[in-house]
Amino acid sequence: MKGIILAGGSGTRLYPSTLALCKQLLPVYDKPMIYYPLSVLMLAKIREVLIISTPKDISKFETLFANGKWLGMEIDYCVQDKPEGLAQGLILAESFIDSDTICLILGDNIFYGQGLSPMLESAKQNTTEGFATIFSYHVKNPKAFGVVEMDSKGNVLSIEEKPNEPKSNYAATGLYFYDNSAIHIAKDISPSARGELEITDVNLAYLKQNRLKAQNLGRGFTWLDTGTHDSLIEAGSFVQTIELRQGYKIACLEEIALNNGWISEDIVAQRATLLSKNSYGEYLTQLLQK
């Protein structure tokens, strides 16, 4: 399976902060926003990742991650000249994906909770059987989201974008697992009224073929979309609270890579030296001491 992180867009809801820097590079407490979705792919044991971003921002991601070898990964980059919809990412990534299955994640989404890895593994398994899996989350105001209606077995019954009368309180998050046919589906859909290739239309195509499942993130999980100033502060406060209270770091890429057996302790030590003047570097040092 290969991973795609969508890190493009203009970030207009975060102006003026994003006039010079894309939102996925803004800090969420102690690390860049993009660390969080990348950590999800790493927890799913996905080692080959494509980051899609704008012409002016792609070089910044290359500076941040290089080729990914320091994480035991292969990280590639792709330019999206114009923001023409999330589903366009599948088309842009066609040569990168080749014949593999796909995990697509939005660069401004944060997922946290005990037991996430088994859920990711289950979604990966679904793709080998020709199914797509979306991740749902219970929200207070479903009218502001894409709403997922599902049965007790996780089969999706309907998806509606910001409905006036929601059929459930479950919102579709920015995490999607697809088999390889998603590329061809994305090519076949038409632009929406706003001129974009909508990821909802890809999901609806799977639904029509009875090939769409939903994995619900229950009460013990947190899903955050960091696309506004308020939600950015909320996300930073959440991460700060967890990290200071528990002593664990959320989305520590080096820790996940080490636990996965992708990198050696020597590489972690090098990173700890590089980051030695802050708590992130101290955390890496403590990992090695343990």
From TrEMBL:
Checking InterPro entries in the record gives: G1P_thy_trans_s (IPR005907), NTP_transferase_dom (IPR005835), Nucleotide-diphossugar_trans (IPR029044)
Locate the Nucleotidyl transferase domain: which residues?
2-240
Q: Which UniProt keywords apply?
A: Magnesium, Metal-binding, Nucleotidyltransferase, Transferase
Pfam families named among the record's database cross-references: NTP_transferase
Reactions performed catalytically: dTTP + alpha-D-glucose 1-phosphate + H(+) = dTDP-alpha-D-glucose + diphosphate
Q: Member of which family?
A: Belongs to the glucose-1-phosphate thymidylyltransferase family.
Q: What task does this protein carry out?
A: Catalyzes the formation of dTDP-glucose, from dTTP and glucose 1-phosphate, as well as its pyrophosphorolysis.
Q: What is this protein called?
A: Glucose-1-phosphate thymidylyltransferase
Native species: Helicobacter didelphidarum
